[in-house]
Design brief:
alpha/beta, Cytidine Deaminase, domain 2, Dihydrofolate Reductase, subunit A, 2 domains, elongated
Length: 337
């Protein structure tokens, strides 16, 4: 199962809104096939694992380790549960039950109805952690929200005149580009666009560009900014208008539940995860609304003396600390009460 989880992780940033799934097929205590879900719309992990076995007769009586319940519905591909029944496997071992309403136990019932033994819960916490975006999306009906900022040793995230573009070092900034390639969307506020004119794409890493999500309640962003270059899907949430120009969409949620409305709309658009890169007002709005799941903070040895204070994280539990040259990367998860 550890191997199945390892294989599944190869799909990060490539299979959303599907979950990451790996599959290992064992016969007489030997691995005879393995595979993972490689790209959205492509074959699922079980299909790739079965196809990796030249002699399909070996599948009869085999054990299948898969970190998520095999699907039971026709989507982009046929049901994987039916495939395993067809090849008469003997035992299917699963980490997590699929909470997508289209599956949700149906795959297990298909297997058991065919006389296949099913074992659930092997390495379930590890499986949940791997697919935290998928499970949050379906259980909370919003994207998985990751907050990110950098802070100086004296507690500031920017100078007063906003001329401090970089606080973290070049290695930390490369990691941020890796993160961008792993999430469906990247979110900033209007002031960050006006001060920094960011491109919000993936440059120092190989991977897909996330959808740009811009929070501009009062439509302050006018002019030739990079976010309007049409190279990426761009969603501008505001209180003034609904309109669309090619792949730039202005969306007007209800003012009374503006932040919540944004996340609901993102969920309906299939955005399963969002990396929030600032600025301070946007980060604090999400923190105070309790709508975040994870925070990644770069603590730099630089000092400013004065400036814009970094957000204060509420209900955060430190789960990991890494040294990135002279920066410390602190990773928090939201404490569940």
């Amino acid at each position: 199962m550890l191997r199945a989880l390892e294989l599944a992780g190869n799909g990060l940033g490539r299979v959303s809104p599907n979950p990451m799934v790996g599959c290992v097929i064992v016969k007489e205590d030997k691995i005879i096939g393995e595979g993972w879900h490689q790209v959205y719309g492509g074959p699922h992990a079980e299909v790739n694992a079965v196809n990796s076995i030249e002699d399909k007769n070996q599948l009869k009586g085999s054990e299948v380790y898969v970190n998520l319940e095999p699907c039971a519905h026709y989507g982009k591909t046929p049901p994987c549960a039916d495939l395993l029944v067809k090849h008469q496997v003997q035992h299917v071992i699963i980490s997590n039950r699929d909470i997508n309403p289209q599956v949700q136990g149906k795959g297990i019932r298909i297997l058991e109805s065919a006389g296949i033994q099913v074992t659930e819960g092997m390495l379930a916490p590890e499986g949940y952690k791997l697919n935290k975006r998928f499970f949050t999306f379906h259980s909370k009906e919003r994207p998985y929200i990751i907050l990110k900022w950098a802070v100086t040793a004296d507690g500031y995230m920017a100078r007063t005149n906003h001329d401090s573009k970089w606080i973290s070092n070049i290695y930390s900034r490369q990691i941020v580009h890796k993160w961008r390639s792993e999430e469906d969307g990247i979110m900033i506020g209007a002031n960050t666009v006006l001060h920094d004119d960011p491109a919000l794409n993936v440059r120092d890493w190989k991977g897909k560009d996330p959808a740009r999500i811009i929070i501009d309640p009062h439509l302050k962003i006018r002019g030739n900014y990079q976010i309007f270059d049409q190279r990426q899907k761009t969603l501008v949430y505001n209180l003034g208008e609904d309109r669309e120009i090619e792949n730039i969409i202005w969306i007007k949620p209800e003012e009374s539940s503006f932040i919540q409305g944004i996340f609901r709309d993102l969920m309906h658009r299939g955005i399963q995860s969002v990396l929030v890169e600032g600025g301070k007002f946007l980060l604090e709005s999400i923190i105070h609304a309790g709508l975040w799941d994870e925070a990644r903070i770069f603590a730099s040895p630089l000092t400013f003396g004065n400036g814009l204070e970094a957000p204060h994280l509420v209900d955060g539990e430190l789960i990991e600390k890494q040294s990135i040259f002279d920066d410390d990367l602190l990773i928090f998860k939201k404490r569940i009460h």
